[in-house]
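[Automated response] Your request has been received and processed.

Submitted sequence:
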Amino acid sequence: QVQLVESGGGLVQDGGSLRLSCAASRRTFSGRAMGWFRQRPGKEREFVAAISASGSTTYYADSVKGRFAISRDNAKNTVSLQMNSLKPEDTAVYYCAANKNGGLSRSSTYSASTYDYWGQGTQVTVSS
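Generated structure:
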């Protein structure tokens, strides 16, 4: 049973914007922090952004801080990632993930091992 489904990826030029969305089942969304990770070509999967279950706390990787914004709609069981000022190095497959917990802490937010549900990924390509 598919729990998380990402959408919104595509091809964009350097400096452009994209908005990723992730639709979740209530079971995998309600009461859980949500995160976005990405895997660039030849690299390991890395943390991008996360948001607590209430939406009151967010974390960002330094590489995207000030350019990306994570948000969630608890009524619709969706989490989004607004990506602005995109760079070629942002090219990656982006994954939505549901954390095991509702709150966020520095020790749990950045580690993929604290997320137990993952989407299939959506490709983002930024051309120079």
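Summary generated for your ticket: Residues 62 and 110 are 12 Å apart (CA to CA). The first helix runs from residue 26 to 29.
If you did not submit this request, please reply to this message.
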